[in-house]
Design a protein that fits this description.
Belongs to the methylthiotransferase family. MiaB subfamily. By secondary structure, the chain is α/β, with parallel strands linked by helices. The chain is built from 15 helices and 21 strands.
Length: 496
């Protein structure tokens, strides 16, 4: 008798991506096997890990649930579970609107999923269990990582900020930090498994240490990561300008395996709008941070989040955002059109901006950032870079006989396939010959190929996957810090 299969569908931020790895690990620990790629609901258990931040998130969820209803009717024993931020927010509403859902669980009790599925099966009724506070830190749960050689590592959950556009603190709770020793032990264990790149993850990652009142805890953690043998690349997301202190910049610059990449959410360049957003910094403070980072790490690539059309935003306010974009020269920006989020203070503010005005400003901002991204990428031409080889990041790689990889600053580079074998996780040295706004090309011969333990780990995982029975798919990993989310409409997981 074959094992039951599962499918996890993930929406939203990196925290949800990491939680989905935990959900997959829990299900596999309970005896389920991952459904084949493209199963599209044809699994014994389908789990939706939802986001309450994206625009129309609830409509999309109920639309997807509706499409599964007839499949469930035809497939006896099939179960559907809904978790994540939208589940934490809507709770009983989900079962009322979609009574064929078997389990609803929140952001604080993802570890209960297998038990809730079994209880729903035995009792033949929906199980709704929403914890009000964290029951177990996610990193203590079993994991099925998407990548053999790169991993997320949660250092905190929750957020203590009160940004008026963001509902995340209400759904994820107050910030709770992990012990430094536990974090480092997890990283060392991951490196022992072949991981060579880790991304430290938190809703407000550089506020780490607020639990114990140590303002330098995050910089100390970065420096400690620098002492872990075999750990080649360290990244983190997302910091908050309020908590971004000089000791963090120094730790980044002085720790060789901390990458010269920074995602620093701006949200707006206007001081009055930042105040209305309850963002505890102003334009001068933000640009001051960028200036210090560039002085310490001239080659650093800096990205950001920007919301266009926040309530009350005037043309002058918008021009201040454009000014900051010109001054900061971001490598790329995740730009969002403001849209109301029920339950947030901004949703009831006066002076909501007409859609056509928001759209026009958004298009102007995107055009400016596109121009800057291209100009900044052109500066990379002629540079020799070490890339960690990726899988699945170059859609045209097969047709062009290229491979793809990530530079230390996380820029995507497509390079000519060498004669020698190169595996995802290995490191190659190339010279950049061409720049586009969102990627670089290295069209000449690869200068050097360095096989790595990370490449060994990828090969081992895929050899084991090939040996499994047909229909069981372990999934192919992607490079490094799992790819940034695409530009979308609506604020991002916005407490950053």
């Amino acid at each position: 008798m074959s094992a039951k299969t599962y499918e996890v569908r993930t929406y939203g931020c990196q925290m949800n991506v990491h939680d989905s790895e935990r959900l997959s690990g829990l299900l596999e620990d309970a005896g389920y096997e991952r459904a084949p790629e493209g199963a599209d609901g044809d699994a014994d258990v389908v789990v939706f890990n939802t986001c309450a931040v994206r625009e129309n998130a609830d409509n999309r969820l109920y639309g997807n649930l509706g499409r599964l209803a007839p499949m469930k009717t035809k497939r006896p024993g099939m179960q559907i579970a809904v978790g994540g931020c939208l589940a934490q927010k809507d709770r009983d509403t989900i079962v009322k609107k979609a009574p064929w859902v078997d389990v609803v669980f929140g952001t604080h009790n993802i570890g209960k999923l297998p038990v809730l599925l079994e209880r729903a099966r035995v009792q033949e009724e929906a199980q709704v269990e929403i914890a009000e506070s964290l029951e177990a830190f996610p990193s203590t749960l079993p994991t099925r990582r998407e990548s053999a050689y790169a991993a997320w590592v949660s250092i905190s959950v929750g957020c203590n900020n009160t940004c008026t556009f963001c509902i995340v603190p209400a759904l994820r709770g107050k910030e709770k930090d992990r012990r430094t020793g536990d974090i480092l032990a997890e990283i060392e264990a991951l490196v022992g498994e072949g991981v060579s790149e880790i991304t430290l993850l938190g809703q407000n990652v550089n506020a780490y240490g607020s639990d114990i009142g140590d303002r330098e805890a995050f910089s100390k953690l970065l420096r400690a990561c620098g002492k872990i043998e075999g750990l080649e690349r360290v990244r983190f997301t997302s910091p908050h300008p309020r908590d971004f202190t000089d000791d963090v910049i120094a730790a980044m610059a002085e720790t060789p395996n901390v990458m010269p990449q920074l995602h620093m959410p701006l949200q707006s360049g206007s001081d009055p709008i930042l105040k209305a957003m309850r963002r505890s910094y102003r334009q001068d403070r933000f640009l001051g941070i960028i200036e210090k980072v560039r002085a310490a790490m001239p080659d650093a690539a800096i990205s950001t989040d920007i919301i266009v059309g926040f309530p009350g935003e005037t043309e002058e306010d918008f021009e201040q955002t454009m000014h900051v974009v010109r001054e900061a020269r971001f490598a790329n920006a995740f730009t969002f059109q403001y849209s109301k989020r029920p339950g947030t203070p901004a949703a009831t503010m006066e002076d909501q901006i007409p859609k056509e005005v928001v759209q026009s400003r958004y298009e102007r901002l995107v055009a400016l950032q596109e121009e800057i991204s291209w100009e900044e990428n052109k500066k990379q031409v002629g540079r020799t870079l070490e890339l960690m080889v990726a899988e699945g990041e170059g859609r045209k790689d097969g047709a062009t006989h290229r491979l793809s990889g990530r530079a230390p600053d996380n820029r995507l580079v497509h390079f000519t396939k060498p004669d020698t074998e190169v595996r995802p996780g290995d490191v190659v040295t190339v010279e950049i010959t061409y720049a586009a706004p969102h990627h670089l090309l290295a069209e000449g011969a690869v200068l050097n190929v360095r096989p790595t333990r990370a490449g060994d780990a990828w090969e081992k995982r895929n050899t084991e996957a090939a040996a499994k029975p047909a229909g069981v798919m372990l999934g192919l990993p992607k490079i490094g810090a799992p790819a940034p989310l695409p530009v979308a409409t609506g604020s991002g997981c916005g407490c950053d």
